[in-house]
Write a structure and sequence with these properties.
It is a single chain. This protein has a domain of 71 residues. The chain is 61% helix and 12% strand. It has 103 residues and is mainly alpha-helical. Helix 1 packs across helix 2. It is built from 2 helices and 2 strands; from the N terminus they run ββαα.
Length: 103
């Protein structure tokens, strides 16, 4: 059941009503989305690449070079996946939680 997007939300507290304004986020511009997904996927792929590199090859003097190669291969894939999967993940989250489509 979809509820209409309210301009404000009312919470009852005894005999008083508390009005809380809800600020609706505008649709994010493409540049914001590109930078945000780039930063998020960069950090996540760096961490995963580091863990997998350590597990597979161990910690020694060449770890940084091996990690950097792994991360350079994983980062573009992670960024593309975040750009493609992001809107679907947002819709799925909103569906699961019953929240507004623009949240």
């Amino acid at each position: 059941m979809r509820r209409p997007e309210p301009a404000a939300s009312f919470f009852e507290s005894g005999s008083r009503s508390l009005i809380v304004a809800i600020k609706v986020m505008p649709t994010r511009p493409l540049l914001w989305r590109l930078v945000h997904t780039g930063l998020l996927s960069g950090g996540m792929s760096a961490l995963v690449a580091l863990i997998v590199t350590i597990v597979n090859t161990g910690i020694d003097g060449g770890l940084f070079a091996r990690w950097l190669i792994a991360w350079c291969l994983a980062y573009p894939v992670a960024w593309f996946a975040a750009l493609v999967w992001g809107p679907s993940a947002r819709m799925l989250t909103n569906w699961l939680l019953g929240t507004d489509q623009k949240s």
